[in-house]
Model the fold of this input.
Amino acid sequence: MSATGRDQAPAPSPSDLAASLERAAFVRLVSDATGEALAATGVLARALAADDTPFQASVVAPFADPDRTTEADVTVALGVGHGSADHTLSATPAATAFAVVRALGADPDPVLALAGTVAGGNVDGTVTDAAERAGIDRRPGLAVPVADIADGLAHSTRLSAPSSGDIEAARTALAGLDLPADPTADDRRRVASLVALAVTADAPERATETVAAALHPYAGGPFETVGGYADVLDAVAREAPGTGIALALGHEGVRENALSAWRTHARHAHGAVANATTGRYDGLFVARGDEMPVGTVARLVADFHAPEPVTLVVTDGEAAARATDGRDVAATMRAATDAVGGSTVGTGERARARFDVPTSDLIEAFREAV
Done:
């Protein structure tokens, strides 16, 4: 059965949601396990905390039901949404949360909001302008969260390079640049050029656009760059949601735990990309393998490796799909899981599935639905 068809409250206007939050004595924030939804949760939660409004914030993995044991005056879902929510911010949750906090008369954190929009690929002009007014500027180089360029290159999930997932390979790739301990702007440009060439070699055309978004990043915030912050948010939302909530709330002392989760997630994802068994069909590229973070793997394969516009990544009981041509791949996944008795969540160009049949059955059902 499909999970995408459940009824959800219509998206509220920022002013309407702000009014609802102002009246609430207790608020529940339910985030999808994505960096953009997690950032949106943090933007709203910080405003509630500043106003002394009690709240509960949690990250809910795909197909998991949120804990409904806590009574709340208002429940806000960030991301795809949940049936128990009073309000759902789904399309651009980070930018919308930013607007909601402004409607409350407060000052939202522009760097967290910008990181959220970067994580979701929904960069918003209003949020960007606010971040720039707060002193966040672009610099040459890679959008990574750490000062060690090899560490950043190896563990970024915004890139898929030959050295991804292997820090020693990253160091070897960078060795020829003879970088100083404190790289200059010109050094960072040389790194960006090297990485861009490595990533786009033998890659589909869309890889050029994707890698461009991971270069010349905004610098600042709790990590080296805002793009790196986005990468960490996306990783911890999936790998360590408790740490993710603490990071989004701005708690001190979680940075290293967040970076550890980011590295772990990156190694799992890049290892899965490298070791996947692949198949190419008319309009569809399939990658399958053992246990893996299917959502991140599907994004990496679709952006950097798939020669077809639709990517399906499958492991035992789980799958994720991405489309790069604007088609509604969630509808395709829903048709496939309906055919095999599984469930789907997602909208538009991305979807997740859960099923209890052999992976070959899900792949065949998806092929027929494409």
User: Anything to note?
Assistant: Residues 1-136+220-263 form a domain with the inorganic pyrophosphatase (n-terminal core) fold (CATH 3.90.1640.30). The chain has three domains: 1-136+220-263, 140-216, 276-369.
